[in-house]
Amino acid sequence: MGSSSLDAAESTLHRVFGFERFRAGQAEIVQVLLEGEDVLAVMPTGSGKSLCYQLPAILSNGLTVVVSPLIALMRDQVRQLQGFGVNAASLNSANDEAENQRVYRDLREGTLRLLYVAPERLVRSDTVALLKRSGANLLAIDEAHCVSQWGHDFRPEYLALGQIRAELGDITTIALTATADAPTRADIVQKLFATSPRTFIRSFDRPNLHLMMLPKASAKKQIGDFIAARRGMSGIVYCSSRKRTEDLAAGLNAMGHTALAYHAGMEQRLRDANQDTFLREDGVVMVATVAFGMGIDKPDVRFVCHADMPRNVEAYYQEIGRAGRDGLPAETMTLYGLDDMRLRRLQIEEGEASDERKRIERQRFNALIALCESPRCRRQTLLAYFGESSEPCGHCDLCQDGVARFDGTTEAQKALSAMMRTGQRYGTEHLVQILLGNTTDAILRSEHDRLPTFGVGKDRDANSWRSIFRQLYGAGLIELDIAGHGGWFITDAGRLVLRGQSKVEMRQESLSAKRDRSRRSGSSMAETALQPSDQRLLSALKNLRRQLAAELQQPAYVIFSDRTLLELAAKRPTSLYRLTDIHGIGQAKLERFGQAFLDVVLAHEDDRAA
């Protein structure tokens, strides 16, 4: 794509979406797609993945087919695109006949730019034939990690997408995901592409998210107190069971919050109604199992809490990623306890997965425990899991509050020595038993009872040693062979500690809860920075948005995002022309809503003067 094409893309970005410039990484992907090359894009939630294929779809004359795993996600994306004046539609089982006929007509006439379909619908021969006749020239596969058995959301129906791509004539394809470690990325490429695509891996860092993890005391009280300090904010609370979602939602309502439950066992109509309420209204807390979340594109979720431990680091990252998609500050709080750890391990062992799959899941869950127990910056530990290094962030709970530490160099050397002397091929439990001096069958069989390190850790119990291994992992001193046999191996930094050339600090083993410091979050902090008169204007703008959303039966953010309203309140444009300088106001929204919002701004002109 030449500079003129890039200029056209930037012009369209501003005219249609009202965005001043590309976010980091978007322009390169748009350029490669317009040149007809395949792409694998691993980008964090909230970084603008969808725009990477939406903009080429608008610029090209053909049809872009978007594979999406959930009807709710399709409808949300379609609503937003239609709000920007883009002809988009979806084919799914929830469509009525009239809606399907409109889709078929637009396909025949060649006016449809984006068509969202579920993988189950796409594999039908009549759908493939329809798309070929309609001139499909770009295939976008959202949530691409679903194709991988190593991914945390494996869906068998995604396995057919590579064949469908071939049947469509090997059209240009982009696979997108927010969460994919190295084994998952390799699986995506192998299953979806005939030749290696151009791969773009953006930093997994979400600097606008505040990370906090607390030992669990009373989950209901801890979460209730957390939400009380953020009243009026939209948030999600994840629970490990259906019953727990209903109990916790009832408890939060009794405390005076607006909380709704959501899980797969609920009657479909009630589930849909609760989701619509959450999407359309401010200040609603959704208490849910992981059945709620994938594809929830609400940008103004200000917090995500975990009442129970997530399944693994990938699931944790994906779930907290639903907060702060608008780029404004948002918060996360995860509660963890020994009962959670036992439950998650039991779920892995009693599951129907293969032994290999269970082994992978064990290692991934151990990495999450290491994150919970890390003595250093949460963000550093989280990013290290995805292969990134970073400086301490300065605004996670550990950076802000600190943690009781001790010189753990001697303990680290004992653990590292046990690993080295056993060939760096064994997992935590075998090494713990060596350090404790226990003569298990495996130790006797391997003659590891003859090692100098056998029994050198008798001064600590098994749980303490397990915590030490998790902390060594969190500190980057050892690595886990996730795709291999699950053994620990020592990193270069770990060898320095083993040789006495470097020291290591560890956190005290403790499950005593720290207090939440009741920070104000997200858009509430941005609102606090406004002058009182601007806050009054913002309130009036939100009221207008709420009225329009109710009339149009649309989520409020489909009309304008919080960021757009904050800019309107702060900058107070005086003409329709000046409205185009505000983030998120493209041509279609200017024509549809501009005058109404401008009238509210002008009506408050005297308020600021006073």
How many structural domains in the coordinates?
4
CATH level-two architecture of the largest domain? 3-Layer(aba) Sandwich
Question: Numbering strands along the chain, what is their spatial order in the largest sheet?
Answer: 3-4-2-5-6-1-7
- The total count of strands amounts to 18
Percentage of residues in helical conformation: 40-55%
**Number of helix segments?**
29
Q: Let me know the largest β-sheet.
A: 7 strands, parallel
Shape: globular
> Considering the protein shown, what is the CATH homologous superfamily of the largest domain?
P-loop containing nucleotide triphosphate hydrolases
CATH class of the largest domain: Alpha Beta
First and last CA, distance: 53 Å
Q: In angstroms, what is the radius of gyration?
A: 26 Å
> What share of residues are in beta strands?
5-15%
What's the topology here?
Elements: H1 3-17, H2 26-34, E1 39-42, H3 49-59, E2 63-67, H4 71-83, E3 88-91, H5 97-109, E4 114-117, H6 119-122, H7 125-133, E5 136-141, H8 161-167, E6 172-177, H9 182-192, E7 198-201, E8 209-210, E9 213-215, H10 219-228, E10 234-238, H11 242-254, E11 259-262, H12 268-280, E12 285-288, E13 301-306, H13 313-320, E14 330-336, H14 338-350, H15 355-372, H16 378-385, H17 397-401, E15 405-407, H18 409-421, H19 428-436, H20 441-446, H21 462-474, E16 478-480, E17 488-490, H22 492-498, E18 505-507, H23 522-528, H24 532-552, H25 556-559, H26 562-571, H27 576-579, H28 587-603, H29 605-609
Parallel strand pairs: 1-6, 1-7, 2-4, 2-5, 3-4, 5-6, 8-14, 9-14, 10-12, 10-13, 11-12, 13-14
Antiparallel strand pairs: 15-18, 16-17
Helix pairs in contact: 1-3, 2-3, 14-15, 15-16, 15-21, 18-19, 18-22, 19-21, 24-26, 24-28
